Amino acid sequence: MTDKKRETFGNFIYMLLSMLVFVVMIIAGFKYSQFLYTESSNSTLNLIVSFAMIIAWLIIYWLQIIIHESGHLIFGLLSGYSFSSFRIGSLFISKSNGKIKLSKLKLAGTGGQCLLAPPTESDKPTNPILYLLGGGILNAITALITLPFIFIVNNVHVKYSLFMFFFFGIITALLNLIPANLKYICNDGYNVLILSKRNEKSVEALNFQLNVSNALTKGISIKDMPDEWFIFPEKQDLTDFLITTKAYVCITREIEKGNFEWVYGVIDGLLSLNVPLLGIYQVLLKGELLYLGMILNKLTLEQANDINNSLSKDYKALKNNISMLRVNYSAELLLNKNQTEASKILAVFNKLAKVHPYVSESITENKLITLANDIYAGSDILNATSRFVNE
Q: What is the dihedral of CA 315, 319, 321, 324, to 10 degrees?
């Protein structure tokens, strides 16, 4: 099976499993309601019990996410990785200078995330496969442990709850282990599929991303990280999502350093090459192309409007991403000349930037907003970009 067919098959299975969740929940809810109204005619009590069961199912759903991310943590630690950050929903837990730090971060298409730091060069080499598969494995294990109790327990309320725990566990495992490339992200199984090709540069790219994330949690600015980390991939190496994501991270570093002309040319080239980019990074790169195109006056009004209009749905989907908010704000200010709408976006940006786990990213994004404000106020491009670099 070719990579394209395998990806299409995985996405199809992912869609079927998502539909199955919806169907099973409707059937289970209907059957449970039938049982309640057969056992009792007290409609108020039945309503309370039904509401309680819905709450229980929501708790089970989030419990499976916690189990999933814990699986990545446990199997990652067993593989030689060390703790970096752990996220459930928007709650982001990280460790810096030996202290636990709580902050907020939402990522489109994810319910959680566990990022670990790879072993240092002096440590024994480790394989990331178990770390990546650990989440789905733990979901499956805990679900199968629950299975016999569904048949042993007599209490119908407990039986339904155990069934939903089993069902959500198996579905969560399958949704993460069967390779799928979704709109904005790919799942664990897809990353493992990439690594199964035994391309050392893909493994290096994964470890690079984990090292950068780990350094960011410790408050280190991306421009202050070791230069040897940020070797931009060669054109012929841009063959999978892990390597092109490394390219994206390298680009963000150059933005932070103020190398805007270079970044604009590289992004324009990457997007025209049609290299395999994750959906979220393709959108973010288009956003940076628009932002820099407006700042450097590289785009015609028609070109800028075309890019901005193509991002309209992504602005909504990535409304919690501070980089995307900065691009949206700048477009409203510089392109649409709509100060009212820009102010609304800026208010959301400021709120999220204050609780963003990576402080250096918030600082850079604020500087980029200031740069857009300077250009809007009529500042010379060279003077404005010089201030950005020297701040």
A: 20
Other residues' Cβ atoms within 10 Å of the Cβ of residue 76: 26
Tokens of 68: 């999933």
For residue 58, give the nearest of 27, 18, 89 by alpha carbon.
89
Q: Which tokens in the block code for residue 167?
A: 């069902």
Residue 329's identity, in one-letter code, is Y
Q: How far is residue 243's CA from residue 233's CA, in Å, rounded to a whole number?
A: 7
End-to-end CA distance of the chain: 53
The helix (H) or strand (E) run that includes residue 92 is strand 91-96
Quote the CA–CA distance of 234 and 167 in Å, as a whole number. 44
Q: What is the pTM of this model?
A: 0.89
DSSP string, 55-87: HHHHHHHHHHHHHHHHHHHHHHHHTT-EEEEEE
Structure tokens at 283: 């959108």
What does the domain layout of the chain look like in residue ranges? Answer: 3-81+118-193, 199-390
**Helices (DSSP H) in 178-310: which residue ranges?**
188-195, 200-217, 241-257, 260-273, 279-295, 301-310
Phi and psi dihedrals of 249, rounded to 5? -65, -40
Model confidence pLDDT, tens digit, residues 298-311:
999 999 999 999 99
Neighbours of 278 (CB within 10 A): 21
Instruction: Calculate the average pLDDT of the chain.
Output: 89
